[in-house]
Structures are given as C-alpha cells and as structure tokens.
Write a structure and sequence with these properties.
CATH topology: Growth Hormone, Chain: A
Distance between the termini: 28 Å
CATH superfamily: MFS general substrate transporter like domains
Number of helices: 19
Structural class: mainly alpha
Number of domains: 1
CATH class: Mainly Alpha
C-alpha cells in the first residue's frame, strides 16, 4: 500500500526526469501533435492537388518547398542549446513557443485565396506550418535526448514514432473528409482548433524537480540543467565539431540522408501514382494511407522499440532496409497486378510499416550517438540531414516521372536503401562512446 502511495505521489509531481510513465506519455502526445500538421501538408494536400489534376511537377514542388524548414532545423537547434529560460527547463520553453506558432500558422493557411490556382500562396502558408512543426520537433527531440535514459530510448522512440504515425493517419483521413465536405479554406482552420489541446502538455509537465511551471511562478534552475548548459557559442560549436567528425557520426549522416531521400521519394510518389496512374480518388487514397499509417503506428508503438532493444539498432535497420529493397523490386516488376487494389494496398501497408520501423531504429541510433551537452544541435543535425534528403527525394519525383516509366522508378528508388545499408555497417557505438568520454567532462549530478 505504501509502495502504491509513493508511486502516486511521484507521478503527481509531473517531473519528466523522475517518472518513466510520464516520459512516455509526454513524448507520445507531443509526437502525436507533430503528426497532425504533417498529415495535412505532406499527404492530404498533395492528394487533393492530384485529385484536381495538378501535374506531378507542381505537386512535387509543393512538397519540396514545405520540406525546406525541416532541413534548416540545424539553424534553430544551436539557439535552443545556447539560450533558454533555464528555470523552466532546458527545452520546455521552446516546446511551448513551437506549439503556439504551430497553432497560429495552421490557422493562416485558411486565408490563402483560391489555393488551387495560387500554389505560391499555398506553398508560403505550408512553409510556415512546416517551420513551426520543425521548431517544435527540435525542442521535443532535444528534451527527449536529455531526459530519457539510454535503456528507455528504443522503447520511447517506438511510442513516439508510433504516436506520430497515428497523428498523421487520423489527420489525413479527417482532413480529407473535411476538405471534400467543407472546402479547403474552411476545413484546414477548423482542424487547427484541435491543436490547442496539445499545448497543455508542455504547460503542465516540468522537466525536473524545483523548476518553474511558468516564468512568473516559484522555482529555480536544476543543478543538472546548469551543469550541461553551455554559456558560449564557442563551446557549443567546439563540442559539436568534436562529436560530428567521429567516424560513426559521419557514416550515420550519410545513411540517414539516403533514408530521408527514400522517404521523400515514396511519400511524394504514392498520391500521384495511385490517383493519376491507377485512377483512385483522393478520398480512397487518404483512407488507405490512413489505415496503413494507423496500423504501422500501433505496431511501431508496441513492437518497434522492443525489436531494437532485443536485437540492436544495426541489425534491425539492415533487415528493414533489405525488406524495403525486396518490396520495391516486387512492385516494380509486377505491373500486371497493379489493377488489383488489394495488391497495391499491400504494398502501401508494408512500405509504411517498414518506414515506421526504420525511423524508430534511426531515432534510437541518433540518440545513442548524441553528446548531451550539445544534444539538441547534434540530434537535429542528423534530422536536418535526413530532411534535406527527403526534400531532394520529393523534388526528384517530378523529374523521374518525366524520364522513366513507373516500373523503372520503383526499381531506381531501391538504390537509396542499398546505400543506407552499406553506411550503417560502419557505425561503432562502443568506439563512439569511448571517444565522447575522452573529451567530455564528467557530470556527477543526477540527470
């Protein structure tokens, strides 16, 4: 009875550093919030554009533009590592700002006049949604690297990425239904009201004991936060340079770039391929993709992290990527079966499931390679490189569709996961950790 009472008190403290259940819940909800705008901008809108006969080049250009802020996250991360309201936590104030910006920018897209014939305006609005989505993503990832212990990272990443996939899925199917029923300019702002709920998460949960809930409430900076806070740009970039020139960091950067390119190619290709090549409607595509994302998210939450925990990041990445190559060759060599919707559904389901599992394993790998004093910057550098690859892959779809048949495009895409497999074989976690220990000062204060 006393044990349960102590647990209840501990849970009610609402400190991320003190309670694993609270950590899992906090980051799952924040990643669910990240999935919502992505479901609209990266999936629902491209499907809507394809349904309204926009060319593959126009759709690919839209996706490429909204991908740009995700590539520039590396410019935001050092600011977050350098400045903060330390008495409220190292990253929590930035998460709150990101959530506010996301709500406001999502509302603004509804003010784009005649979006089908004003793609420039649509791109600008989408750019700002992506900017604040990326902004919140940097803060959330930096917080996760700092407060999640290494033995929880794989499991946490499974829950986080699974929650994001569920957010994408629900937003895609609901967003598409609302766009078709209410019209674009009414549906998108209407959905932004739901985002207001998620800002309660960073508002009510603190990183460490003793910190302020808000700037005007009582509290102070934690000793641990002070110990890892770098007070100058020189120290931040010096620490970052030391860790990014390590061999495992370099191979990780190359691997995650090509994996990002793979994601960009497939995500941009699917609505164009299914709607304009196979004759699906944007509603049918959205429903299918939502179902597959939901299934993938649930599997990711309950199995993705566990598999990485049990077998290791490198082994699981190799298996997932080899399976992706096999899947791409299968769909590329069996065009005679494309007329069967169940067959294409199976391809979308398996590719989405593999993409989710790959992302979970890559996130866990990135956290494992991160140096805590520059955690937000280093982790974000990996993600920025990934998103640069994604933006390039998205933009490449238009060019490939003009030069090659769909059969050949699927086969060519398989080059990206092949290069990724080769690169991850050179990552050495033990050697990397030992190198960090040699140049980092020991932190004796409990995280």
């Amino acid at each position: 009875m006393q044990k349960n009472k102590n647990y209840f008190i501990k849970f009610n403290n609402r400190f991320l550093s003190e309670n694993p259940v609270l950590r899992y819940l906090n980051f799952s909800l924040l990643y669910l919030a990240q999935g919502a705008p992505e479901g609209i901008t990266f999936y629902a809108i491209p499907a809507w554009l394809a349904m309204n006969n926009k060319t593959p080049m126009e759709i690919a250009s839209f996706v490429a533009v909204i991908s740009i802020p995700w590539s520039f996250k590396i410019l935001i991360a050092p600011i977050m590592d350098r400045y903060t309201i330390l008495s409220m936590g190292r990253k929590r104030p930035w998460v709150i700002i990101g959530q506010l910006g996301l709500i406001i920018s999502f509302l603004s897209i509804g003010f784009v006049q005649d979006p089908l014939n004003n793609l420039d305006g649509l791109m600008i609005a989408g750019f700002f949604i992506s900017f604040f989505g990326a902004f919140q993503d940097v803060a959330t990832d930096g917080m996760a690297v700092e407060v999640i212990p290494e033995n929880e990272q794989a499991r946490a990443n499974g829950l986080m990425w699974g929650s994001k996939a569920i957010g994408v899925s629900l937003t895609l199917v609901i967003g598409t239904a609302l766009i078709n029923a209410l019209g674009f300019s009414t549906a998108i702002p209407f959905m932004s009201v739901a985002f207001a709920f998620f800002i309660l998460v960073p508002l009510l949960i603190r990183e460490r004991p003793g910190e302020k809930l808000m700037p005007w409430t009582n509290g102070k900076s934690s000793a641990y936060a002070k110990s890892i806070q770098l007070g100058s740009w020189k120290k931040i970039f010096k620490g970052l340079l030391k860790v990014v020139i390590l061999p495992s960091s370099i191979f990780m950067a190359i691997a995650i770039c090509f994996n990002g390119m793979l994601n960009g190619l497939i995500d941009t290709l699917l609505p164009i391929y299914t709607i304009q090549e196979l004759g699906w409607t944007n509603t049918s595509y959205s429903q299918i993709y939502s179902i597959t994302s939901l299934i993938s998210g649930l599997f990711g939450m309950f199995a993705g992290g566990a598999l990485v925990d049990f077998f290791g990041e490198k082994k699981m990445l190799t298996i997932y990527l080899l399976s992706t190559i096999t899947l791409l060759f299968a769909i590329g060599l069996t065009s005679a079966l494309w007329g069967f919707n169940q067959y294409v559904f199976g391809f979308i389901l398996l590719s989405t499931l593999l993409a989710t599992f790959i992302s979970i394993a890559f996130f866990a790998t990135a956290m494992k390679l991160s140096y805590k004093t520059v955690a937000a910057t280093q982790f974000t550098l990996y993600m920025a490189i990934s998103n640069s690859g994604r933006a390039y892959g998205s933009g490449l779809v238009g060019t490939l569709s003009e030069l090659f048949s769909w059969e050949h495009i699927f086969l060519l895409i398989a080059i990206a996961p092949l290069i990724t497999i080769i690169m991850i074989q050179f990552i050495n976690f033990i050697k990397h950790k030992n190198s960090i220990k040699n140049f980092s000062k020991p932190i004796l204060i409990k995280p």
